[in-house]
Design goal:
Radius of gyration: 21 Å
Bound molecules: beta-D-glucopyranose
Helix content: 40-55%
Oligomer: single chain
Number of domains: 2
CATH topology of the largest domain: Rossmann fold
Distance between the termini: 14 Å
Strand order of the largest sheet: 2-1-3-4-5-12-11
Mean pLDDT: 90
Length: 385
């Protein structure tokens, strides 16, 4: 079994490199093969936690991709603990890594450490989450976070046919970790897409919780999301009131919310539940009709784009919009949307997509998922998830 998984990953990575090679212009590539330009350079990768599924996928995939391109990799997970992430990055600085990729636990908590990276001339790429309060971040690579939320809101609009139906429909929001700069983008994207309908009374929020602060979920915790939704159901839906939508910013929170709905909801309908990431348990819920959709951010493409960016930086180039020609999928180079309180961080933003039970095959096509023996559920092809 293990051999099959390894072969699947190798195949996926091989396919990725082929995709890259096809999109590289000779001028951009400088004639270097990835392995030739990487020499003995080391990439330090700091991931937040193994407790949330997506970071296992990101870490595993980045490691294999960079190693496949000839780099040495130091990969560390910091257990969602800020002190540990600072220590982990400090130890990579001490090890003299050539470049750092950091998915921050708390966007505000790395200023001192990344200052040290800068003093040691180690460039820093903020991976997926923007790092705040420092000029040491050279670039940010992520998905268009606002669009992730917007896709969730628009999905709800279309499912309920809000432009034609009278309603009113009941909705509750569950957002992410206040320490994660992405979380407000997701919430705002979703809320803005639905604001018009909330303002005109077609969508009602019985709990009255309509600000990010009121619905945030520290550490993106499944248990906290479960508990919060149980409280909301007990307080506002106890007499059989109908919940039409549980708008959740991501899959770890959607998992808790869906569990609360399954166990504690008395209404006769099945509420729409949104998510983000394509975590295995959530994909199972989607097949079983317990979650309705997830916004998928192709980690495969994010990792390849990050490799291209890191290569360019290490080759002494100054990456700009032209670099997106080397990416495997559409991306925007944005120089003024992500200000980290010190500077506008030049950002590469990839396109997220909607997954429902009707297009799960698209995930299999990424090489990161495979069908189970019955062709009903998806499993991960990565060894850590
Ligand atoms: C990521 C999401 C993820 C969340 C929790 C966010 O920063 O962008 O994809 O669901 O963290 O891990």
């Amino acid at each position: 079994m293990k051999k099959i998984l390894v072969a699947a990953i190798a195949l996926a990575i091989g396919a990725s490199f082929t995709a890259c090679a096809n999109t590289n212009s000779p001028a951009n590539n400088g004639g270097d093969t990835p392995a030739a330009s990487s020499g003995s350079k080391t990439v330090g990768i700091a991931m937040p936690t193994k407790a949330l599924e997506r970071w296992n996928r990101d870490g595993e995939y980045l490691k294999k991709l960079f190693e496949g391109a000839g780099y040495k990799v130091e990969l560390k997970y910091s257990d969602n603990n800020n002190d540990q992430q600072n220590n982990d990055i400090q130890s990579m600085i001490a090890d003299k890594v050539d470049i750092l990729l950091v998915a921050a636990i708390d966007g505000e908590a790395l200023t001192q450490t990344l200052g040290d990276a800068k003093s040691a001339n180690i460039p820093v790429i903020a991976y997926d989450r923007l790092i705040m309060g420092t000029d040491a971040v050279s670039y940010y690579v992520s998905f268009d976070n606002y669009t992730v939320g917007k896709l969730q809101g628009e999905f709800v609009r279309d499912q309920l046919d809000l432009d034609n139906q009278k309603g009113p429909f009941n909705i509750e929001f569950t957002a992410g970790d206040p320490a994660d700069n992405n979380a407000t983008f997701f919430f705002n994207g979703a809320y803005d897409a639905l604001k018009k309908y909330i303002d005109d009374g077609k969508l009602v929020i019985p709990s009255g919780k309509k600000t990010f602060e009121q619905v945030a979920t520290p550490s993106w915790s499944t248990d906290t999301a479960l508990e919060n939704m149980q409280n909301t159901l007990a307080s506002y839906y106890a007499k059989g009131e109908q919940l039409d939508v549980a708008l959740c910013s991501n899959d770890s929170t959607a998992l808790g919310v869906a569990q609360a709905i399954t166990s504690d909801y008395n209404g006769k309908n099945t509420p729409i539940v949104t998510g983000q990431d394509g975590d295995i348990a959530n994909l199972r819920n989607i097949v079983n009709g317990i979650q309705t959709m997830t916004v998928y951010k192709n980690v495969n493409n994010l990792a390849i784009s990050t490799l291209e960016l890191a290569k360019a930086i290490l080759n002494g180039e100054t990456p700009d919009a032209g670099l997106t020609d080397r990416f495997p999928s559409k991306a925007v180079f944005d120089t003024n949307s992500y200000n980290n309180n010190v500077k506008d961080v030049p950002s590469y933003l990839l396109d997220p997509t909607i997954i429902t039970k009707d297009n799960l095959q698209e995930l299999v096509d990424t090489g990161l998922y495979q069908w189970d023996a019955d062709h009903k559920y998806l499993e991960s092809t990565a060894s850590t998830t």
